[in-house]
């Protein structure tokens, strides 16, 4: 298990402090907004490096974008924190794109399956990402910017200087104000605003061996049903372990977690090396999920509730009217399905 840590945002950040997991930014803790870095104190934006493919755009470079304000947005498609920023990014792109803003979404993968161009293309279509996307499978641009988080934004002025950074979700008005301050003619401000989720949520939970999982890499273990610590993943049945995931080694293998949140998401995948859809039963408090609590990925059949895991992706398994304390269980119908993470929303 990896505990959340606190960190201060570097000079020029819009938010001042944040709560993060090991790499994914969980939520912004509000603080006094910092000023935009003055040009004489700003650093040149690193060039985009190691980009293997572009979506929604011909190839771009930071040099070719000189004269425009650029928002370099690091994301990865299975990250729910990234997905929750998309309505804001879409509004910025539509409002300020014609006025001199270019958003470059740098897709730097966390998991190996996110390196697949086909998977990224599918995610861009399904998530309605309409701005330019640069595929950074080996994290060359990530390293050039010395980035550590998903999502993370680097706001570059018309002279190619990094004038502000922003980590995580939230602070939309402040981010928009920074962009507007750098545009020669920003026009009217964007009408729609949204607030980031707040309150105490269960932190992201990783199941793979490299993140403190319960099954050693390459081994198979059988777990008995037993009580666990709050917010800790429990396994029942037989599992095989790997660096990034655990896999059901037999039908009935079950992952259980007591959590505090409104929405629950899980990164899951079919058996390694295949595209065979897998049905995973979803239980809430030991029972089928009621209609009002089913996430977008859950279907009902014969009084039972399931997720059909047909691709390596993030699945929305639970929702509700408000954050609360509950227990979720995901039970494999057949051997082979893989679990990577649980993430949560308020």
N- to C-terminal separation? 21 Å
Question: Element order, helices and strands?
Answer: EEEEEEHEHEHEEHEEEEEEEEEEEEE
Figure out the total of helices.
4
> How much helicity do the residues have?
10-25%
Largest sheet: 13 strands, antiparallel
Name the CATH superfamily assignment of the largest domain. Answer: Glutaredoxin
Could you name the ranges where pLDDT drops below 50 across 5 or more consecutive residues?
1-22, 24-34, 191-198
Strand fraction: 25-35%
How many domains, as an integer? 2
Please tell me how large the radius of gyration is: 21 Å
**The CATH top-level class label of the largest domain:** Alpha Beta
By CATH, the architecture of the largest domain is named 3-Layer(aba) Sandwich
The pLDDT mean sits at 86
Let me know the number of strands. Answer: 23
* Strand-pairing-aware structural class: mainly beta
Identify the quaternary structure here.
single chain
Shape: elongated
Per CATH, what is the topology of the largest domain? Glutaredoxin
